[in-house]
Amino acid sequence: AHNLVKQFPVQAGPFEPKRILTAVAGIDLELYPGETLGLAGESGCGKSTVARLLTGLIPASSGSISFDGKDLASLDAAGTARFRKEVQMIFQDPFSSLNPRMRVAEIIGEPLAIHGIGTPAERRDRVASLATRVGLAPDHLQRFPHEFSGGQRQRIGIARALAVAPRLIIADEPVSALDLSIQAQIINLLQDLKAELGLGFLFITHDLSVLRHLSDRVAIMYLGRIVETGSREAVLDRLLHPYTEVLLSAIPRIDGGKERRVIARGELPSPLAPPSGCPFHTRCPYAKPVCASDPPPLEEKEPGHWAACHFSKEIYRSQR
Ligand code: SF4
Ligand code: MG
């Protein structure tokens, strides 16, 4: 994705003026085959909008998205159909993303039917093997979604996403609604599938501790912008942006490392009125006057490790 922007017109009430909400403010993202990119930030930072843009569920206001080197906007009908097969999505809420009136076998098999793959008998076999692969018992297939726990419903969602053998899965907070022990099971399943099938993942979460387990690279979003990105080790162990530090401080340390809690001041500003200069300056514990006027560019601070902060070198060199 290159220089991706998404704006929505919003109107607070019938007599209020229309305003423009910039949910995604010009981001670049690259996903390599078979890798997991973790995209993290607070709710309201634009992560889910990025997911919906990348799957083509909503059109971008400007910027471009390409897949296999081809611009999505220039694809013909066959190309678009292929893209819709190669990129599948797993949603946060397995309760609302599964049709309550369909049996599990129909839900998992639906993408095969939509894409016209296989005979009915072949589809039934494929559905049975997918169900087994994600840990659902064969006798579960004739049941309805409400008969399952949250974790099992997410397994159904994963089986459905896998049905058409995609190369990329976009998972928007797939474990956030689940209990911790169930989260670990689902994350293990996703990791196994990644290794086994060579799947690429865009894994969207507000919880950086999840990304420690399953991402190759990490990108941190704040108010519709990417403020830091690099390898998992670079971003999580040698962070260079105060916002990343705030997100990491929110996670209790279990490695016995030195505890240093950095807390953001105040609330997340409205994306309707983003701050001038550095978008994080109203909350940043290190902000200086220049931060309120000059937007910091996303710069490569060390090889492959990018951050958008005027003072990252000064702040983090002195602390290491
Ligand atoms: Fe904080 Fe300034 Fe860096 Fe923004 S540019 S993150 S306000 S120190
Ligand atoms: Mg969201």
Automatic annotation (TrEMBL):
**Highest rank taxon of the organism:** Bacteria
Any Pfam family matching the protein:
oligo_HPY
Q: Report whether ATP-binding shows up as a keyword of the record.
A: yes
A Gene Ontology biological process in which this protein takes part is: peptide transport
Please state every residue range assigned to the domain named ABC transporter.
1-248
Q: Which family does it belong to?
A: Belongs to the ABC transporter superfamily.
NCBIfam families, sorted: oligo_HPY (TIGR01727)
Return the protein name.
Peptide ABC transporter ATP-binding protein
